[in-house]
Input
Amino acid sequence: MKPLLRVRGLEAQYGLLKVLHGIDFDIGEGSVTTLLGANGAGKTTTLRALCGMVRHSGTIDFDGVDLTRRRTEDIVRLGIAHVPEGRGTFTSLTVEENLQLGAMTRRQGSEIEEDIRRIYRFFPRLEERSGQQAGTLSGGEQQMLAVGRALMLRPRLMLLDEPSFGLAPLIVREVFAILADIRDNMGVSMLIVEQNASLALELADEAYLIETGEIALSGPAAEIRDNESVRNSYLGY
Amino acid sequence: METFFQQVLGGIATGGIYACMALAVVMIYQAIHHLNLAQGEMAMFSTFIAWQLLQWGFPYWAAFVLTLGISFAGGFLIERVVLKPLENAPVLSHLVIFIALYAIFNSLAGFIWDFTVKPFPSPFGTAALFGEGLIGAHQAGMILVTLIVLFLLFAFFRYTRVGLAMRAAAANPESARLVGIRVGTMAALGWGMAASIGAVAGIMIAPVVFLEPNMMLSILLYGFAGAVLGGLTSPGGAVFGGFAVGVIENLAGTYIPVVGAELKLPIALALIVVVLVIKPNGLFGRTVVQRV
Amino acid sequence: MTAQQDIALPAGRDKTADRKSGTAMLLLSIAVLAVLFLCPLFLKNFTVFQLTMMLIYAIAIMGLNLLTGFNGQFSLGHGAFYAIGAYTTAILMEHFGIAYGWTIPVAGLVCFVSGFLFGLPALRLESIYLALATFSLAIATPQILKLSILEEWTGGVQGIVIIKPDAPFGLPLSQDQWLYYVTLGTGLLLYWAARNLVRSRSGRAIMAIRDNPVAARSMGVNVSLYKALTFGVSALFTGVAGALAAIVVQFVAPDSFTLVLSIALLVGLVVGGVGWLPGALAGGAFIVFVPNIAEEVSKGLSGAMYGLIMILLIYLMPSGAGGLIRTLADWQKRR
Output
């Protein structure tokens, strides 16, 4: 089967500093792929490069469309939703406005209303706070809001940057359970960048290990999870 | 007591002018998070365009609408042509660009239409309404127009998708791009709208202060003061701030002995600074709460 | 102006390259100094006067740079301190018969105190609000100087006329040349002081406040005190410049110290490079010479020309002359 996203020889740099040295990976339609690695390995940069937010070269093929020359706004319009590092909340706007912004590129008003109600079913806490300034939400609530905002795009592919960051373990479980639900019931493909490897491997179908800007290892998530030597040397658990 | 009311009424009348300008200032601040020093000159230039259209025989409201359209296009173009290439330049470089725009518009207007003072017609007439000629028909009309613009803006930002997108683009450009908003276009729209609102302000103000290239100099200052006093995040606050500045200025001139009359403007400004020291976000400004 | 954000900071560089470009910089500095020392001997008196004004504006810009570039506080009102310096000198000379040389340090001191006192309430104000407060100061200055109750001292709208001093000890210099060297000497002294201040412990505290006030506070920096003190030092520099200007121009009057002056200083700062002290020289040159150039290009549209030149300069060097020199140095290094 042809993958939804096909990345070959991706390089990226900040100023003079090269961070990615040609990485290759695929994301299958309707599957969850995780990108694991230590701090500074280039995980976040990979996501940013996919969205055209850093200088990069190589080929990025999204369902037959080349993304490398496109601007962030246009990439989003193809159905790629990015939940960025730090969650990207519009702190001065209300929770509901944040959700509406997620659907900014869509046209049909009634469907958008319906989607907002659906997000509220996923995250009842957001509904309780719908009129509140989003900056006043707790970290976990802002993470939910970020996921909800991304879903409002009705994306084909979601890029999630450390969805577990700074959250209490219980909330992390909750967020990951919802992500699994989203994949299973809505068929959204995902690329998840995580430091919490065990959690990400439980959810993911495929996994890639990135080390100083290069892919060190890849394979089905279950295999990597069960391979003790990999766990010991790369994942540290 | 009678003088007091007289002065307050007079203050409200001039305050209407400041409120108009303050609204334009807040408008552009919301859209681009900049205080545009050239805004007054842009408004003056728009007013000259309206004057020219009237000279060519356009009916008043046709000239009004046409001027708004031209100003919108002009503001939009200035953002695209002059400011876009400097997106990543430091803040102070933008400030210099604003000063440059100021010089350019002022000089161009003087060059094209010369520096003689020109009368500008009012659509509301000049009949005195009340307050012994302090508030005339034009002043009342001007205040009404300001309130209508305020209402339209409020509705635009609150209830339209473009309005929401503009607010988002200003508040958090990176996130805005990630939901597919064309941030650059939003900034240009903001400039266009601000130029149009400036044009409304200029056209309303010109019958009172007369038309000439330097007419906006002190008005912009009062407009800034009003906007900052009311809070830069609040269009309604800005309008209130504009009226307040007018009243404060008049009362300071009357009641503060000796220096009052000579130092009307500095005293008004000093009072505003005092207010800001107590309430650093302005009277109606919103503090953005942020959790780390 | 926007809510805070970056105010153009020099990028960090590695040491060996620093040393290499350091030598180049040293040679360049020596060349500039040599030109500054020798040129008045070969120029017309009016040109010497213009160059003196350039140095004076450079001193004022240096002061503004300490405040804005190194401490991150905006000021649209530094013309006020320039005016205070100028009037202090003029009043001391006119009413108390004090020799001009002594009035300069006094003017500096008066401005330091005024700046410190103004800096105290300004502490509560951030970015745009501080800009408005200083803007108000600039607006108020000429009006306060014109006040009738102060007229006895300030001379009201008429201002005060001062006598230009001759060169002492029978030096074979014209008045203009002598004042040029006085200004150059003062300027170099102040440059040396500013450089040492910036590189000292206090300098690091000042810059830490610019970059992250919360972190600076938690490291034990007394943020309020440092901000107010920086305001004072900045005003001192600008006040000394004002004092020199009063002597050189031989005249002070309220309308020389309007908002236009404050704005010009700010433009000079940006053109020279925010956060780069030697840039003040470029800024001073801009203030003195660019309006003349604009005038020559087109009389009727001189204002528009002036604006266009400003826009072009910002296009060519978005971070001022300092930024341009840094870019050139980086490029040189990479070759």
User: Anything to note?
Assistant: The first strand of chain C starts at residue 160 and ends at 161. The longest helix of chain C spans residues 223-249. Residues 1-15 of chain C have pLDDT under 50 and may be disordered.
